Structure formats: C-alpha cells, structure tokens
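Task: fold both queries, return tokens.
Query 1:
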Amino acid sequence: GDKATVQLPYQSADALNLIYQTINMNYKRVVGLNLYAPFGVGYIWNATVTANVFNQREKADHFQDISFDNSKWICYGDLSNSFKFSQNCPVSLSVDFSYISPSLQGISDLSGMWKVDAGIKWQFGKKRCCELDLKADDIFNTWSPTMTINHAGQDYRMKVRDMTRNLKLTFIWRFNGFKSKVNSNVDTSRFGTGR
C-alpha cells in the first residue's frame, strides 16, 4: 500500500555530512506465505515451526536527489522447542532458533540474522502455583543486522554493535489456582494455541 514511511541515511554531495531522513515512500508491498506447525513426541518434546516466505517491494521517487524501486524475497524461520524429563516433572527446558535472510529497508540492504535462545522453567508449590523461569535470549549476540547502501553514488555501511543478549529471571505466583477465563464461544484455533 501507499503512505509507508522509512528512515534512511543520505551522504550529502555538498559536504561531509550524513543526513538521516524519514521519508514517505510512494509504495510498499509485502506478499507471501506463512506456515505454522506444532508437533511433538509425547510429553518429552513439544515444538513449533514458523516459516514465512515473502516478497517485499519499496519504491520512492524522491529521496533527496535519488529514486529507488527495490524488491527482495525474504525468508524467516523459527523453531521453538520444549523438553520434559518425565510426564509429571516440574522442570522443563526450552531451546529456540530463529533466522531471517537478507532483507531491505528502502534504498538499503540488511544482512541476514540468526539467534539461539534457551531457558529452564521450574514449577513448584501447591498445585504448582509457582513458577521460576530463567531465560537467556540471543546467546551468541547475533540478532543485529549490518546495513549497506551502494546505489546512486551512495556508499554506506553501518554495523550495529548492540548488546541484544540478555538474561531474565521471572517468578510467577498464581493465587488460589488462578486460570485465565477463556470465552468458549470464540474460535481461537487460527492462532495456533490448540484451544
């Protein structure tokens, strides 16, 4: 559709300046397919695969003195895994993998990215009303893209050296066996929650 915006860097031809500008693009389109598939092996292993394949096109007639019309096929994949040692075991492990192929942002190309997350969950207390969850996200700190521009005299490379790795400890206490209310008249099967 139209009226999409994007922020892009521009190397001035008149001075040693880098200008960041938010522009209104003439056109942005994303079209593709999405696959969501849960599966597992009994109580031991439960997994979910998410896969997206889509074509993204972005067009602008006036970005400073440049015009662009870029299109790229992009793939995204995610595999979420949960493991239990026995059916009634209060401890479970999770290991998740994510990947996105090289993509685009306006006139720029973004490198592919991948990450691995892992965690351990312990349920305890009366009727397992308490939960302690230790989770490490982006263990290898790889979920930041490199942006490059090589178009119409623009020669630009930006490598983000961000710390996307983090460690979280979460404690949950459900009072009096609290369970969220679910309206049984609403069909939620399209969300892949299995309810």
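Query 1 returned. Query 2:
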Amino acid sequence: MENDAVENEPGTPQRRPPIRRRVLLASVAGCAVLGGVLALLPWGTGGTGTPAPAPGAQALTAVTTGVPAALPDLAVLIDEREKRLRTHPRDAASWAVLGTAYVEQGRRTAEAEYYPKAEKALRTSLKVREKNAEAMDGMAALANARRDYRAARTWSEAALKADPKRWTVYPQLIDAQTGLGDYKAAKRAADRMLKLRSGPAVLARAAGVYRDGGRREDAAAALSDAAAGAEAPAERAAYLERGGQLAWERGDLDVALRHFREAVRLDPDQRAALAGQGRTLAALGRTTEALNAYRAAFAKQPNPEYALELGELYESLGLGQAARVQYDLLRERAARAAAGGVDEELVLGRFEADHGDTDSAVRRLRAEWRSQPGIAVADALGWALHRSGKDTEALKFARVATDREHGGTVRSALYVYHLGMIERELKRPGAARRHLQEALRINPRFSPTRVPLTEEALKELGEPSLEDVPDMDAKPRRK
C-alpha cells in the first residue's frame, strides 16, 4: 500500500555554491584548541549560478540527515507533508518526515503542543509500515525532546535493529545514554557513529561526548571543524551556539559572546544563542543588554530554563518583584510542557531548591533520580538535600556529580560550587576551600548570584591551616 509514495522526493541534496569562509583559531596559555576562537566572517555566494534548494527541500534534507533546520523552512516542509498526506494517507515515509519535523519545531520553539502531533504522525507511520527505522528514529528524537530517556534508548535500539547502518539514530542513543548516566555507553555509541559517518553533524555530536568526558580541547576542535564545514546558515548557527556554550563554561566570555552573536546573525531564530548572550552579558556586568537578550529569547522560545536564569538575574539586581514574575512564568511554562508530555522535573526541582519549597524539590528530584540518574540530576538532588538540611546525604550526590569514577567529568563551576558549599556546612574547611576555589578557576563569573556567595564563603574560611595539609609521612590505614 506504499506505492502511493512520490518518486524522486524533493530534498535531494544539491551542490551548493562555493562559500567563502574563514575560521580563526587562537591559542590561550599555550593550548591552541582549548582557547579556540571561531570567528566566521561574512561570506557570499560564488558565481556558478546554481539555484539554492527550495525551503521545503532544504528542511527535508536537514530533517532526514539529522542536522538543524531553519524554522521558516520547517514550516514549509510541514505544510508540504500535510498536503501530501491528505491525498496519500498511506505514505509511511511522509508520516515519518512530518513527525520528525514536528519534533524539531517543538524543540526550537519550546512549544510542547507540537509533540502530541509528532507522536500521532510517527505512530501512524509505524502503523502503515511496522519495520520502519525512520519513524523509530523520530520516536527516539521525540522521547529525548520530552526528557524520557528510557523510551529514547528503547526506540533508538529498535531503529538500529531495523537498520544497523542508520547513523542518524546514534545521536539519539547518545542523548538517551547520557540522560540515564551511562557515559561509557554514550562513548561507545559515539565511537560507532564516527565509524559509520563523517561530516559536520557527526563532529558536532561527538563534541558533546568529548565535553561530557572532560575533553574540552577535543570538543572545541570538533565544534570548530563542524562550524567550518556546515553549509546551511541554521546548521552553522547551531554549532556556533554550542561553541559559545563551551567557551562560557570555561569562563572565556569574549569568545562566548562572539560565538553567540554570530549565531544569531546567521539565524535570528537561534534563541539558545540569544539566551547565551544574556548569560554572558550578565557576567560581564552589562545588565541592561543582558536583560534585553533574555527577554527576546524567552519571547520567542519560552523555555522554563530561561525564565529561571532571568529571574535570578533580576534577584541579583535587587528586583524581587520582577524575579517573582519570571518564576510564575517558569511554573506556567513547565505546566504547559508537561501537558505535551515533557518532563520538566529537573528545572522545577532546581527552582524549588533555591526559590521555593525545598521539600518539594527533594521529592521531585528523588523521583527523577530513580528514573533518570544522570549527572545533572545528581547535582540538583544533592543541592536540594543541602537546602533542606540533609547535608550528609547531599554530599553523596554532589560527589557523584563531580567524581570522575562515576562519570562526573564535566568541568562545571556550578557543580563544584555546590560540592564546596555542602562541605563547608559539614565543617570540612580544607575540601570546601579547595572546591570553591576550583569553581572560580573553572569560570570566575559563572553566576551573578552565586559568585558573590562563593567569595564570601572563601573569605569566611580564610587561609589554609596546618590541619588542612595532609600528613605525607602518615602510614595508610589498613582496610
């Protein structure tokens, strides 16, 4: 019954006109890659006269090859597929494309109402054709977008069973394994992906695995190559945004801001980069610009995470009423996301721990840890336990989030700050001082509210005493 499918579907990749680009990699402290600066300068089209693919065809190519697509192009693709399916309701491939496009639309806009539409389209594709790797791949992407990592892993494995060489499944499997805290499995999936495929999309996804494994130099190099090799502006903008986030995490604010601004210039719908600008400008003390960037990002992509960051920025400026407005918006957006099947318990737990009901935060995050024991959840649960006065238990989770043996290899100033503050409360001054100092080394301006608390705590802890210095001559205890 699939003979209704159109032959020669639009979207076959065409050779693009040559693009002039320049990538500048500068070194910092002798490390050429870690301090890599990606400065993509203006480019133009060549003189070949080859027409660019139509918007729907561009989005089709992006959706089926696992790369970011421009929002206007996605809208055209969705409209085209919906029209086709009215006359060809048993076209399994078109149902799979439509569902995957809905997932990307929901992810880019933070509008969870696209996700039930995506699920309906993808399940229809599977009903028309049961052994359908394209639809299974889409279901895995949908589950990841909803933060249902167990379902994402199940669908990814099913898709690979149906089509072992389908490389676009591996990014979904990597995200699922990471969300479940299985970093070794995520690395294995990345290694298999790299054997199957090369190119910008693969490099960008591998960069995330390198970053999670503490290999920031490799992550920066991979993102540089991905951005240099990307052809479509929306794809290049997405990789620049990730490069900006990596630069932000290591405290290289000028580089981060340059990445974020270039990403927005290339793709005005790149709202994650706009929020990144807000984060970076706030750290630079340019608060008016930061507020404007955050507001613009939230207006077009009302992500609860942005509402939390903007609320905390207002708090740091002493604007309590404005902060409360943002926190109300956070709850509202999280509720709307939940109606679309999205798990927002992590951001809600983080919010409640610092600004609301700490007991509620602990309950939410305990449940989240049982179902999805990733590093981000370990950190959030440890902090919620600390805020509720359960510091001994809190220390266990804070160590999981930062202990390399347990997968906590992400170089996160926030995670190390949480660990140091918990140790301070437990009267462990040496460890607390060491970790709080490390947080500032990782990123000296990682938070407008937490950096002053870090500095105040270090001042209170004072200089190290002889009691803080380990006795190198002491004999090890027998176990």
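Both queries returned. Flag for query 2: The domain at 19-42+60-269 is CATH 1.25.40.10 (Serine Threonine Protein Phosphatase 5, Tetratricopeptide repeat).
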